[in-house]
Amino acid sequence: MLHLVIVIVGVYAATLGFALLINVSPKALNLGGVVAVAGYLVYLAYFTYIGGYVGANVVGAFSIGIFGMIAARYKKMPVIVFNTPALVPLVPGGQAYQVMKYVALNQPHMAFFYLTQVVMIAGSIAMGFLLAELFIQLFYYMKRRFNQKRSPS
């Protein structure tokens, strides 16, 4: 349990640090950290109970996309203010470091192995955001259609 609390605090702090680095509005900092923690907890639950870093990144990015859009509507700010810092915990920085290390050590097989992971994780994050945008657009389309049918014209 203590490990989970440390992870949550670490994700929140890393997100706030990156958000400050890219000059996110102070009004969005706390909610951006909450979006990141929620997305990372979804990622962690998927990775722990189902397995696979690609699927976990898709689900994590999807949840960050959904929570980010909800936060953006709540704060009346652009979605990118919440989504960009919230992605920091999902970015494959460790694998990218390994690619550079093995390139420098002239071990192309290991470099290619980690490069494949980087590409798969980056693609899964992009897929998660794409699915989140599709889901939200479909939700609001169905909501408009339902409201049009209910209101007499």
TrEMBL record:
<feature type="transmembrane region" description="Helical">
    <location>
        <begin position="6"/>
        <end position="22"/>
    </location>
</feature>
<feature type="transmembrane region" description="Helical">
    <location>
        <begin position="29"/>
        <end position="47"/>
    </location>
</feature>
<feature type="transmembrane region" description="Helical">
    <location>
        <begin position="53"/>
        <end position="72"/>
    </location>
</feature>
<protein>
    <submittedName>
        <fullName>Threonine/serine exporter family protein</fullName>
    </submittedName>
</protein>
<keyword id="KW-1003">Cell membrane</keyword>
<keyword id="KW-0997">Cell inner membrane</keyword>
<keyword id="KW-0472">Membrane</keyword>
<dbReference type="InterPro" id="IPR024528">
    <property type="entry name" value="ThrE_2"/>
</dbReference>
<comment type="similarity">
    <text>Belongs to the ThrE exporter (TC 2.A.79) family.</text>
</comment>
<dbReference type="InterPro" id="IPR050539">
    <property type="entry name" value="ThrE_Dicarb/AminoAcid_Exp"/>
</dbReference>
<keyword id="KW-0812">Transmembrane</keyword>
<feature type="transmembrane region" description="Helical">
    <location>
        <begin position="79"/>
        <end position="100"/>
    </location>
</feature>
<feature type="domain" description="Threonine/Serine exporter ThrE">
    <location>
        <begin position="9"/>
        <end position="134"/>
    </location>
</feature>
<feature type="transmembrane region" description="Helical">
    <location>
        <begin position="112"/>
        <end position="141"/>
    </location>
</feature>
<keyword id="KW-1133">Transmembrane helix</keyword>
<dbReference type="Pfam" id="PF12821">
    <property type="entry name" value="ThrE_2"/>
</dbReference>
